[in-house]
Recover the amino acids of this structure.
């Protein structure tokens, strides 16, 4: 796409990830800059493509007169909002919804079908054992957050005939089809067999899954976190696991990241831990850039940008 008077773009995202942008806008002026160190002097720039956390020279990049910043990622809780000035911030919200939803469903299936515990590596004492596996049909899935990820999880859970109950910040907003809205967090915790946390990390949601919330949980609850680690009070979670109020915690995100060696989450028998990879899938990185490419087209046309971050709410 050739555009007259196209905006200039600064990019912390390296050249190797910019192919979809180059293909869409072959004549676009894009200056790739390092995340650390001095930025070469250059002309005024309209747009900054950067990461969801702070680069060392972010302020210097903003001094080029940037009007719009796009964060190459989905969560902006680590982004320094104070550097923005009057600039607009957007992110690739929703770009990872499908792989993350698939990961959450994989954790539910693994829990119900007792995987990998049910595998055998030598002849068992009895074939066709009386070991009873669980199922998903008729079970209740709780969702904290009904944005792009929460809705993607809900649709897949409904295909397994699960009963889906959700909690969202604005209860007045109509829920997705087939999803029942919970009255509050305690009610959601008390009715769920599996609970997926898919809410943004903000001061309001910090440690929302703490002792009070865990005390309200249905005994044997399976807790799944694909949002941010700081939404769970991990010491309260350890207590709930020890008392068997929580039967299993499947965690793709923790606090802090990376988790230090020797941390109890690595070795706890009721914890399934992965290193923040639920977003991973073929084309996942290009999918994050696609959101920017679509928004750049809107920026050029003077249309409202999608995925705009509310700086007061923090997402």
């Amino acid at each position: 796409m050739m555009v007259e008077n196209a905006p200039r773009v600064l990019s912390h995202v390296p050249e190797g990830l910019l192919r979809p942008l180059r293909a869409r806008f072959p004549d676009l002026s894009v200056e790739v800059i390092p995340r650390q160190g001095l930025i070469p002097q250059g002309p005024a720039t309209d747009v900054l493509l950067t990461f969801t956390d702070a680069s060392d020279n972010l302020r210097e990049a903003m001094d080029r007169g940037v009007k719009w910043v796009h964060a190459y990622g989905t969560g902006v809780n680590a982004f320094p909002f104070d550097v923005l000035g009057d600039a607009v911030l957007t992110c690739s919200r929703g770009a990872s919804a499908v792989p993350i939803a698939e990961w959450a469903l994989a954790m539910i299936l693994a829990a119900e079908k007792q995987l990998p515990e049910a595998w055998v590596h030598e002849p068992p004492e009895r074939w066709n054992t009386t070991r009873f596996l669980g199922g998903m049909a008729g079970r209740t899935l709780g969702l904290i957050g009904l944005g792009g990820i929460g809705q993607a999880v809900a649709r897949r859970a409904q295909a397994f005939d699960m009963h889906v109950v959700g909690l969202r910040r604005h209860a007045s907003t109509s829920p997705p089809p087939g999803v029942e809205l919970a009255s509050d967090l305690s009610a959601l915790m008390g009715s769920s067999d599996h609970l997926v946390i898919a809410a943004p990390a903000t001061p309001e949601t910090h440690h929302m899954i703490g002792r009070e919330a865990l005390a309200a949980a249905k005994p044997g609850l399976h807790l799944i976190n694909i949002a941010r680690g700081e939404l769970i009070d991990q010491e309260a979670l350890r207590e709930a696991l020890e008392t068997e109020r929580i039967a299993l915690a499947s965690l793709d995100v923790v606090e802090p990241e990376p988790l230090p060696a020797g941390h109890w989450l690595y070795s706890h028998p009721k914890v399934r831990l992965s290193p923040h990879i639920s977003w991973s899938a073929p084309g996942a990185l290009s999918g994050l850039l696609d959101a920017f490419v679509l928004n750049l087209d809107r920026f050029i046309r003077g249309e409202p940008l999608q995925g705009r971050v509310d700086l007061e709410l923090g997402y």
